[in-house]
Inverse folding.
């Protein structure tokens, strides 16, 4: 059980974890922290946090667990503000969507990696943001990847694992670089493609017509293009190398499809579509 949880960045992810831990009776007090007091007041009114402080040093005082759930670009300033102020017995973790960059931000912000810092990433979210969009079930049966490094204490890792399990998640551990490669393929590339497709279509000129006739396929494929632009800018900047590798690979595959269309090569087109359909059907069967 957590006595005092401090959430820096009580938005969709931070707020949802607070709600889940309260529902599970796993946490006695939640203290929020972010830049805008109006957002924090809203979190109090929604019953997500008990109280707040916009000063991170005051907010973490007396906490035994600190969750940093700010956009990737804000991680380093938050860590720097906390340098020398982490309570001795606190574990600290984050939820950033790329891991090597957060570990580097922690190393720079704290001066050295604290043993109590356990890098983490819940593989759950929605295209909404802010505390009003948070809900207690967000992490139920979803995966959380922890990427502890050599300096990370096993005791802190065990506490962070137990917290996510209390929120209903299934916890895996992975090497940070491996995490970044896997997520570039499964999440970052699809988001880049969705943003790129919608942007490209809106610049075709016939904007109204495109959206009037855009039905199921367009809606399904582009839902994630409603995600927060700042968050996705930060993810592309933070995990650029792995994302570029995936974009290069995908561009080659797309070019091959274009060649098949150009050459009226129905056999290749059908083979690619059939193999994709089979893989996707199998995936959907397993995950619904
Ligand atoms: P969000 O709903 O926009 O919440 C971000 C929170 O951070 C807000 O409470 C914001 O409050 C605060 N914040 C922003 N800049 C800050 C700063 N410089 N200092 C202190 N607080 C700051 O975003 P989210 O979707 O929860 O994402 C948060 C993190 O989770 C990101 O690192 C993202 O990569 C990761 N993540 C997101 C998803 C997803 O699907 N959304 C999934 C997995 C992981 P103020 O405006 O009041 O400062």
């Amino acid at each position: 059980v957590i006595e005092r949880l401090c959430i820096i960045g009580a938005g969709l992810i931070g707020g949802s974890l607070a709600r889940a831990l309260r529902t599970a009776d796993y946490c006695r007090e939640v203290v929020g922290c972010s830049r805008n007091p109006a957002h924090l007041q809203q979190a109090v009114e929604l019953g997500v946090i008990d109280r707040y402080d916009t000063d991170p040093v005051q907010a973490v005082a007396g906490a035994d667990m600190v969750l940093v759930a700010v956009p990737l670009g804000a991680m380093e300033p938050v860590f720097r503000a906390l340098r020398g102020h982490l309570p001795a017995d606190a574990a600290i973790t984050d939820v950033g969507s790329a891991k090597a960059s957060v570990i580097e931000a922690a190393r720079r912000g704290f001066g050295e990696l604290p043993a109590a810092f356990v890098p983490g990433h819940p593989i759950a979210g929605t295209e909404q943001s802010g505390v009003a969009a948070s809900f207690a079930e967000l992490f139920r049966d979803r995966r959380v990847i922890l990427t502890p490094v050599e300096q990370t204490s096993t005791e802190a890792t065990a506490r962070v694992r137990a917290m996510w399990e209390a929120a209903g998640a299934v916890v895996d551990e992975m090497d940070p670089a491996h995490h970044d490669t896997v997520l570039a393929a499964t999440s970052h590339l699809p988001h880049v493609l969705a943003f790129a497709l919608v942007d490209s279509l809106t610049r075709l000129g016939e904007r109204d017509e495109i959206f009037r006739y855009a039905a199921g396929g367009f809606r399904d494929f582009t839902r994630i293009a409603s995600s927060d632009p700042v968050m996705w800018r930060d993810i592309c900047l933070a995990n650029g190398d792995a994302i570029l590798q995936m974009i290069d690979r995908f561009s080659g595959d797309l070019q091959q499809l274009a060649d098949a269309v150009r050459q009226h090569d129905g056999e290749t087109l059908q083979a690619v579509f059939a193999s994709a359909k089979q893989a996707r059907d199998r995936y959907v069967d397993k995950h619904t």
